[in-house]
């Protein structure tokens, strides 16, 4: 628990243990339970939980890794436990039906002791309080061999470690409990704006009677001569998610291929300098399907024209090792390989790395992956877990670029546009995967984008935030 809670710690710890016990009772049938307690506040929560489960008639014992320090609140809670105490051994963990992990909380910053690894490895099923022992609550990284849990009871709110891999896979189902912390204390905790991505973070425009194509937004894309499919994926994505008008500006020698590939394609062969004279074309997607020389001929012109730019794929390859070349773009959408080539190797804390990159570039950075991070220069970061492994296919990233462009053209600010695009991309992927048995190609997403956008528009998801 955070130090600013000190004036109300006894009430907070009592409620934390009580609420965690209530969650266990709601989700698991009565069984033999061993509560593993550490020396700190997490252990104090465990002693309280053990007491409440015992009062409900559950057969409960406690295993103590280290006793609490003298005069601590955890010691007070330990003294209130009058039930059986057993040795902290793998043999004891293997004898019961359920082990409650209250050993180390989210602030764990050292390697997990071997005795703890062996203890939890022997457990049949585990429920963790706060985070599984050995998991860094700020990064989702493991400080040793962390045992997977059936469920994790999150105190107050989800932490980054509950959502970022590998932590997300180890936590099991995450259930948040309300500790009735006064608003003034919560304000003191919320010193950074990190969110679980969802429709509560952004509002998409809805259809209006007076709509026309320019009101819904114009998306322009730069097409190359070699990899036509990438630009066409972005083009179709923008069309299917609601852009009013989507235009491709391509070299003259490639125009026929683009027109044949999609009868709906509006293909321009104007020099880019001429296309930029149309002030309605203020949002551009640059990179999908472009080679280095093609990016060199297009992106600087877009930057000098002060357009809103989504840079992906070829644009990121062109700027590898020189992120300053991307100054002036609105959103970049790298996967981890592209991110590392741009900004250098990413250390353990991806949250800090993506925040630094966004601040350095002055643009929204979408770091794609199983848990996609959307960072803004002002420090906001959304973590998106609303997706599916079925999206791990070439071309899916090009679809995402088109979605970001469409929402920028619709008038959303860059961070909100990127966050909305990532969530809807994931929702469309989920729906397509259900229909295709889990194996999809990018074209399968197009027919799901309208439904996914509608689902986002009417979703009523609670805002979730946590402190770094």
TrEMBL record:
Reactions catalysed according to its record: (6R)-NADPHX = (6S)-NADPHX; (6S)-NADHX + ADP = AMP + phosphate + NADH + H(+); (6S)-NADPHX + ADP = AMP + phosphate + NADPH + H(+); (6R)-NADHX = (6S)-NADHX
Pfam families the UniProt entry points to: Carb_kinase, YjeF_N
Record-listed E.C. numbers: 4.2.1.136
Organism this protein belongs to: Bombella favorum
Cofactor needs: Mg(2+); K(+)
Subunit structure of this chain's protein: Homotetramer.
Protein known as: ADP-dependent (S)-NAD(P)H-hydrate dehydratase
InterPro entries: Carbohydrate_kinase_pred_CS, CARKD, Nnr, Ribokinase-like, YjeF_N_dom, YjeF_N_dom_sf
Family named by the database record: In the N-terminal section; belongs to the NnrE/AIBP family.
Binding note for cofactor: Binds 1 potassium ion per subunit.
Matches recorded under NCBIfam families: yjeF_cterm, yjeF_nterm
Amino-acid positions noted as binding AMP in the UniProt annotation, renumbered to this chain: 368-372, 397
All copies of domain YjeF C-terminal, residue ranges: 196-456
Enzyme class: lyase
HAMAP family for the chain: NADHX_dehydratase
Keyword Repressor attributed: no
